[in-house]
UniProtKB/TrEMBL annotation:
Full protein name: Uncharacterized protein
Region annotation Disordered: where it falls in the sequence: 1-21, 94-136
Biased composition, class Basic and acidic residues, residue ranges: 1-14, 94-127
């Protein structure tokens, strides 16, 4: 039944006076749905005039303008919040640079000193090994 993966079920109810019990009549819309095709648009009894279409078009244009204005407002609001956050963070870093910076700088200096001493000791060991090989 078409390329649709859903199962479709057709229930037939008819009386004896409708005709032969072996023949079932279905509308074109039902056939299209059973085959998994796009359904035909409904044809209502209500007539839609050009004035109605123009009014709907006008309403849609107003809604589009309102949504665009709202989007611009939200973009501006988000940009202001982002800029304010950056300024607050920059101010906080500037104020804390003296206290946090000294602690961090001292810790980094100790780490570099330790690494330098380890590399220096390693270099001396290699140098001593090199002199021993030359002496032999």
């Amino acid at each position: 039944m078409g390329s649709s993966e859903s199962t479709k079920k057709l229930t037939v109810e008819r009386s004896e006076e409708e005709g032969s019990p072996g023949i079932v009549k279905v509308s074109e819309r039902v056939v299209r749905r059973l085959r998994g095709q796009i359904d035909l648009p409904l044809q209502g009894d209500e007539e839609i005039g050009q004035d109605d279409i123009n009014n709907i078009w006008h309403d849609l244009q107003q809604e589009r303008a309102r949504l665009k204005h709202q989007q611009e407002h939200l973009q501006e609001f988000m940009q202001n919040a982002y800029d304010e956050g950056r300024q607050v963070e920059a101010k906080r870093l500037k104020e804390n640079r003296g206290t946090l910076g000294d602690k961090d700088a001292q810790g980094m200096e100790n780490q570099w000193r330790k690494t330098l001493e380890e590399k220096d000791a390693e270099s001396r060991t290699k140098e001593a090994s090199f002199w021993n090989k030359l002496a032999c």
